[in-house]
Design a protein that fits this description.
This protein is mainly alpha-helical and 429 residues long. The chain is built from 18 helices and six strands. It has a three-stranded antiparallel β-sheet. It has a three-stranded antiparallel β-sheet with strand order 4-5-6. The longest helix is centred in the middle third of the chain and has 27 residues. The radius of gyration is 24 Å and the shape is globular. The termini are far apart. The structure holds s-citryldethia Coenzyme A (SDX).
């Protein structure tokens, strides 16, 4: 919807162009530049897409200046306090909070898709025991297209939603199987009597020799982390899923691409990097040294779990996770010196002009690892946890894109290579 125009003028040609201003229901007004190449012969240059809207979406709204995050209009703080992951997943996928019967039907569907083809366990057993689980996840999820080609008519809305729910349901099963392969434990099959978080904990930690008791504190903390990581508008991995989806590729290929993008330490891999950083810092006496390194332009070191492309205020998720981390440690009767170290690091950084001027605050990855550790989840699985939750956002955004006519994503470039030249035979070089 456009309510006014911005006029740009090319000083060299004297030509001017009216660019329509698009306004969503929330957020910054946006210039529609589609007519720019044909009218004035210009492209736009925006490395990292800091100033570019790649799509329209009804799913998630972020206001980076205010530190606001809403899923389908509901503030993340309210969903974190009052909802659960299954209900949030339904909300993201379908757009509305479910009724009792809708949620029950959704949960039944997810529960009945949690198992994977037994051959997948053969695939997983082929990995080296110490393969990184994110590498395994990307490979195994991409291979699902070889197992579930029965319902992959991407023109069918029924098949699209089925593929989406299959992904949501099977990610925890595959993730736990990757972990158990590393541990040398036998497969633990999903238990339909458990909820999403409980089922994952059981698949991760149960052993055949004894009954596994679900710790309600762990299940509740996990459910909260899944809610907080579920979606985040057009972040790097979601944009990857959309770009791959725009080619018409199958949903499993799209999610496998999203998993690979998430793995990077600048993105979802940061939760693992934060703990590595805290290990390197060691104790309080070293915090100042690492903060100084983070400020040194000649030092590539960055404070992991700090900063964000959109949030120039507190990441609301980090604030919620910080409180939850305290509660989990207290409820489990444990303490973690790295929690104290993280709090001191945050305190010093937030009082430092460098971080204040650059508006660098803790992000979703800064405290999450403290909770994962307290739940006994190994560091190599931290980004896998992120991927389990973000699968809901990925498939919701993929379905949204699939439901509307979409052109293939194809950015251009500023070419700085050699101008035309003739081939020189090797004898003459
Ligand atoms: C996630 O997009 C999303 O929504 C992502 C996510 C999601 O839910 O999907 O929120 C999840 O990926 C969170 C981010 C996790 N990554 C990290 O914690 C890694 C550490 N953070 C940085 O690498 C960085 O802050 C990014 C990648 C998060 C953002 O990078 P930008 O937007 O490209 O910012 P930038 O690199 O242009 O930095 C701006 C300035 C630079 O200084 P100058 O060149 O202007 O002098 O701030 C500095 C940077 O050097 N800076 C940091 C810093 N982050 C930015 N300096 C020290 N430590 C940091 N962490």
């Amino acid at each position: 919807m456009s309510d006014h125009h911005v006029i740009i003028k090319d000083q060299s040609s004297g030509q001017s162009l009216e660019l329509p201003v698009i306004r969503g229901t929330e957020g910054e007004p946006t210039l529609d530049i589609k007519s720019l190449p044909a009218s004035l012969g210009y492209f736009t240059y925006d490395p990292g897409f800091s100033s570019t809207a790649s799509c329209t979406s009804d799913i998630t709204f972020i206001d980076g200046g205010q530190g606001i995050l809403r899923y389908r209009g509901y503030p993340i703080e309210q969903l974190a306090e009052k909802s659960d992951f299954s209900e949030v997943a339904y909300l993201l996928l379908y757009g509305e909070l479910p009724s009792v019967s809708e949620l029950a039907a959704y949960n039944d569907e997810i529960t009945n898709h949690t198992m994977v083809h037994e051959q997948l366990n053969t695939f997983i057993s082929g990995f080296h025991y110490d393969a990184h689980p994110m590498a395994m996840m990307a490979g195994v999820v991409g291979s699902l297209a070889a197992f579930y080609h029965d319902k992959m008519d991407m023109d069918s809305s029924e098949h699209r939603f089925l593929s989406a729910k299959r992904m949501i349901a099977k990610m925890p099963t595959i993730a736990a199987a990757c972990f158990r392969h590393h541990m040398g434990w036998p497969t633990a099959y999903p238990k339909n009597s458990l909820n999403f978080a409980e089922r994952f904990l059981h698949m991760m930690f149960s052993v055949p020799t004894e009954n596994y008791e679900i710790d309600p504190v762990a299940a509740k903390a996990l459910d909260l982390l899944f809610i907080l990581h579920a979606d985040h508008e057009q972040n790097a991995s979601t944009s990857t899923v959309r770009l791959v989806g725009s080619t018409g590729a199958n949903p499993y290929a799209c999610i496998a691409a999203g998993i690979s993008a998430l793995w990077g330490p600048a993105h979802g891999g940061a939760n693992e990097s934060v703990i590595n950083m805290l290990n390197d810092i060691g104790d309080m006496s070293q915090v100042g040294k690492f903060v100084a390194r983070a400020k040194d332009r000649d030092d590539p070191f960055r404070l992991m779990g700090f900063g964000h492309r959109v949030y120039k205020n507190f990441d609301p998720r980090a604030s919620i996770i910080r409180v939850a981390a305290h509660e989990v440690l207290q409820a489990l009767g444990t303490s973690d010196p790295q929690m104290d170290l993280a709090l001191e690091l945050e305190r010093i950084a937030l009082e430092d002009d460098y971080f204040i001027e650059k508006k660098l605050y803790p992000n979703v990855d800064f405290y999450s690892g403290i909770i994962y550790k307290a739940l006994g989840i190994p560091m190599s699985m931290f980004t896998v946890m992120f991927a389990i939750a973000r699968t809901v956002g990925w498939v919701s955004q993929w379905v949204e894109q699939s439901e509307t006519p979409t052109r293939i994503g194809r950015p251009r470039q500023v070419y700085n290579g050699p101008s035309e030249r003739d081939y020189v035979p090797i004898k003459s070089r």
